[in-house]
Specification:
The protein is of the alpha+beta class. It folds into 2 domains: 37 residues; 200 residues, Calycin beta-barrel core domain (Lipocalin, Beta Barrel), CATH 2.40.128.20. It is 25% helix and 26% strand. The protein is built from 4 helices and 9 strands; from the N terminus they run αβααββββββββα. A 9-stranded mixed barrel has the order 1-2-3-4-5-6-7-8-9. It starts with a helix and ends in a 9-residue tail after the last helix.
Length: 251
């Protein structure tokens, strides 16, 4: 075999190998894209009260919290939670309640590769979920929405929130500095918009509850709905000016 033929065969073999390499790398890339394909939660959502879970009727309070609540109820009875609610003074919700309420308050999700934003209409609250972020600094101050870090497990977004401002034993849903809220968000088919947002919310608070509490929330896509501006203080002022007897600003 002459030198020219050897080079020709060698070139052909190299071209064939290169073609297979490109083919398999393309398939591998496609497979990788399939593996890391992540849903887009962006849009306006409303709680689906019929499909969502509820807090347990008898919450598993620790003995210490049960004693504190018994003292509070004795000192403040009778309590009417449709009227005697801490939010009548325009105090915003804390986690997890801002995600577990079933009343028809819309919220909007805006997704970016490194951060997901949740904008609520009621109280105008904003959550920021940082993807693959490091643990928060010990000096991070607590807030009502806490510090949220997210990570992807396949097509499910797992969000852990800490540094949540504690609620007192006199609140509807008390909390402690040890509270950690874990959410598992995913998309599912169904609902009027063709897809639903499912959020399995688990509360870990060993100073308040003997065991974790999980509530499965379902939100429906609210096509055509915009998250508006809601200023609770304006409602309080209007109620005062008009002399209304309503005890809750927005009712």
């Amino acid at each position: 075999m002459n030198t020219r033929m050897r080079y020709t065969r060698l070139s052909g073999a190299l071209l064939t190998a290169l073609a297979f390499s490109i083919l398999f790398s393309g398939r591998a890339a496609a497979a990788d894209e399939t593996v890391v394909a992540r849903p887009d939660f962006s849009g306006v959502w409303l709680p689906d009260s019929k499909a969502s879970g509820r807090w347990p009727a008898q919450r598993p309070f620790t003995p210490a919290m049960a004693e504190l609540r018994a003292k509070w109820e004795k000192a403040t009875a009778p309590i009417d939670l449709t009227r005697d609610d801490e939010h009548i003074s325009c105090m915003p919700y804390t986690l997890p309640y801002m995600m577990t309420t079933i009343t028809q308050y819309p919220f909007e999700i805006v997704s970016t590769p490194r951060r997901i934003y949740i904008f609520t209409e009621v109280y105008g609250q904003v959550r920021r979920i940082d993807i693959d972020a490091p643990p928060p600094s010990p000096e991070t101050l607590p807030s009502r929405t806490g510090t949220s870090r997210g990570r992807w497990e396949g097509s499910q977004l797992v969000v852990e929130t800490t540094n949540i401002l504690p609620e007192a034993e006199g609140s509807r849903y008390p909390g402690s500095p040890a509270l950690k809220v874990v959410e598992r968000l995913s998309l599912a088919e169904g609902g009027p918009g063709g897809k639903q947002l499912v959020n399995e919310v688990t509360m870990h608070d060993p100073l308040v509850y003997r065991e974790p509490i999980t509530i499965r929330m379902v939100y429906k896509l609210a096509t055509g709905v915009e998250v508006g501006e809601y200023i609770c203080n304006q409602d309080l002022w209007d109620a005062h000016r008009d002399g209304t007897s309503s005890k809750i600003p927005w009712r």
